[in-house]
Design a protein that fits this description.
Layout lengths: L6 E3 L4 E4 L2 E4 L7 E4 L17 E5 L8 E5 L7 E6 L2 E4 L23 H11 L3 E6 L7 E6 L8 E7 L3 E5 L5 E6 L2 E6 L5 E8 L5 E7 L4 E3 L4 E2 L4 E5 L3 E7 L8 E6 L16 E5 L6 E3 L10 E8 L8 E7 L4 E5 L5 E3 L1 H4 L8 E4 L8 E5 L3 E8 L3 E4 L7 E2 L16 E5 L8 E7 L4 E8 L2 E4 L14 E5 L8 E5 L4 E6 L3 E6 L10 E5 L8 E5 L3 E6 L7 E7 L9 E6 L4 E5 L9 E2 L3 E4 L6 E7 L7 E4 L6 E5 L4
Length: 631
């Protein structure tokens, strides 16, 4: 495949171009598919498909930046948007993002063919440790002392579960103290020795200490470890929350981790999620995991929410086969879990937040085997079930897990389908067939509009992205799966498919929407084994308006902005509902500037308010900042 060519995406006869089936046609196609040119020439093919991706603005320049999660087989990949081209923040010259998994260790995973040249170039004698690129592979060690500067080396190994074998040490003595500890002696005069340590898959943590003066280096590129000691964790990132929570106003990053398919349990050492504080400088992030409580939960999705309307955000972590968490930040920055005392320590991996009863407090939506349920927030101090019939949203009964899937990618999205000013409930990718469901909000609750709107015809969507792609003011849906397609919202009545007439590899499950080139049209960013940008050419350039919300107390997650048009449309958007199945990003809210009717004004219902505040709209704006207390 030629990575430099762009592929036109239209709706007319197929031709073969650059190794992909695409369509040729008019001069104004709906999309142009870009690869290497969209990523500054840096677009290597990965060994695994991307797990997830989200966008935010790390440098506050107005351009959406990008974060890709390669799960447990690759580091988090941060891209900065420079004039519509994504540039990697981390390069071969070093880790510039600060998004390290282990403090002081830039990269843990490497193949021997890459690690050994890096060690040779490093040139210093001592003991080097890293991990094989295979998640369930071995810890790799290399001892090098060509000038025999050291009198050998004694090292001590401790894992969180069990050391299964130590191989490659014919000239060394290995002493097993118990299942979790080994003492290894490398004799004096040894100039070079490669060896491997295999642990049980649950052994996600390995401590290495060196007795005596020999130097210890960890990771690739090699990094010296003070005092000859290091504790290394294998990563297992799942959900990411990329939101400004500390008022810097750069977005902080929280990453929840798994629990080795549920095998991580006492008396083994618990996992630690990751919290990266935004520095506002270089590197942009600093790992501060000591603020996070340790636990054994299988973390899935994460979402910031303000449950008590004090302006300080709490973090909702949905887990699988374990109690959900609600992490509250104390004044000293340490997180504590309050889910149990609030009554929201559910065993529910599919959750979302929104003010369903319009009392000013954020309520909790979750999906169980036969429907969407709601826990009502009572003043930020306790949550109560809404009752069987008050907000009834019944779903076909299925098994809770999508069959054949390692991860259930069902997602709840709150978005206005019919432009009536109400947030409707979209259930996307549920069940073995990955079906969609739509519940429209009315005066007396929710009604099932799945069949009436054509949602029942959408199947196989493993990932869904919501945005107004054609600029008509209605929320559309891009679907990834066996038959990738763009489903256009026909004025809030039905959805109609515009199939993608090029071959999207079936392993692509990571996608997000962002105006990459700042032309006023929402583009799509995809990541499979490589990365793509689908440059949107639908609608009219510049026919959109971004709304940024500011609250002196903090990020107003949960605020609902309604754009009121002269033709009667009332389009509602909720800040904080921009999300994937696992991750959250608080992108600017986007509205169509024109269309069938002119955009007259905005109404904002701030967190804690039962009624909306009116904001008049000045003409000619493409960016509007709405500040609480200053209408």
């Amino acid at each position: 495949m030629n990575p430099s060519c762009a592929r036109l995406v239209t709706a007319i006869p197929l031709v073969l171009l650059c190794g992909l089936v695409v369509v040729a046609g008019p001069s104004d196609p709906p999309f142009v598919l870009k690869e290497a040119e969209a990523f500054g020439g840096h677009n290597p093919t990965m060994k695994i498909p991307a797990f997830d991706l989200i966008s935010s603005d790390i440098d506050l320049d107005g351009d959406p930046d990008l974060l890709i999660n390669w799960h447990h087989l690759g580091p988090l990949e941060l891209f900065e948007n420079r004039g519509g081209t994504f540039r990697p923040v981390d390069t071969e010259g070093g880790l510039r993002s600060g998004l390290v998994e282990n403090a002081g260790v830039p990269g843990l995973f490497s193949h021997a063919s890459e690690a050994e040249p890096a060690i040779k170039a490093h040139g210093e004698p001592g003991l080097y440790v890293w991990h094989d690129t295979k998640r369930l592979g071995a810890w790799q060690f290399l001892w090098t002392d060509p000038r025999k500067e050291y009198d050998g080396c004694t090292l001590r190994l401790t894992t969180s579960f069990r050391i299964e074998s130590v191989t490659g040490l014919e000239l060394a003595s290995v002493f097993a103290e118990d299942d979790r500890h080994r003492r290894v002696r490398i004799p004096a005069g040894t100039t070079y020795r490669r060896f491997q340590v295999t642990t049980d898959p649950v052994g996600v943590r390995l401590e290495v200490s060196v007795d005596g003066p020999a130097a210890l280096f960890a990771g690739v590129p090699p990094t010296p470890q003070p005092n000859g000691r290091v504790a290394l964790w294998k990563p297992d990132p799942h959900g990411m929350a990329w939101v400004d929570v500390e008022g810097t106003p750069h977005p902080e990053l929280f990453v929840t981790r798994g629990a080795i398919t549920g095998r991580l349990a006492p008396p083994l050492a618990p996992k630690v999620d990751r919290y990266y504080a935004a520095t506002g400088g270089k590197p942009p992030y600093r790992l501060t995991q000591r603020r996070i409580p340790r636990g054994y939960q299988r973390g899935r999705s994460v979402e910031w929410v303000d449950i008590d309307n004090d302006g300080r955000l709490e973090l909702s972590i949905a887990t699988e086969r374990g109690a959900n968490q609600l992490l509250v930040r104390r004044s000293d920055g340490v997180f504590v879990d309050r889910a149990a005392e609030l009554g929201i320590d559910l065993d529910a991996a599919i959750v979302s937040w929104g003010d369903v009863d319009r009392d000013g407090y954020q309520d909790l939506f979750y999906v169980d085997d036969d429907g969407v349920k709601v826990l009502l927030n009572r003043g930020g101090t306790v949550f109560r079930p809404a009752g069987e019939n008050r907000f009834k949203m019944k779903l076909p009964r299925i098994e809770s897990r999508n069959k054949g899937d390692t991860f259930d990618r069902t997602v709840i999205r709150l978005a206005d389908f019919d432009a009536d000013g109400d947030l409707d409930v979209w259930i996307l990718g549920r069940g073995p067939d990955h079906r969609n469901h739509l519940f429209l909000r009315g005066e007396n609750g929710f009604s099932d509009a799945t069949a009436a709107t054509g949602f029942h015809s959408v199947a196989g969507n493993q990932t869904s992205v919501l945005a107004d792609f054609n600029g008509d003011g209605y929320e559309d849906m891009f679907v990834l799966g066996p038959a990738p397609a763009l489903w256009l919202n026909d004025r809030g009545k039905r959805i109609r498919s515009l199939k993608m007439p090029f071959v999207v590899p079936p392993w692509i499950e990571a996608a997000t929407a962002a105006d990459v080139d700042r032309d006023g049209r929402v583009d799509l960013v995809l990541a499979g084994r490589t990365r793509y940008v689908m440059d949107n050419r639908m609608g009219r350039a510049g026919n959109s308006l971004e709304v940024v919300l500011k609250d002196p107390r903090g990020k107003p997650i949960g605020a609902v902005v309604t754009a009121v048009y002269s033709d009667g449309r009332r389009v509602a958007r909720r800040l904080g509902s921009g999300r994937t199945a696992f991750s959250q990003h608080a992108e600017p809210l986007r509205f169509t500037a024109g269309g069938d009717g002119a955009l007259d004004r905005f109404e904002v219902r701030w967190p804690g308010d039962r009624s909306a505040t009116l904001f008049e709209l000045a003409a000619g704006k493409t960016l509007v900042v709405l500040t609480r207390g200053n209408p």
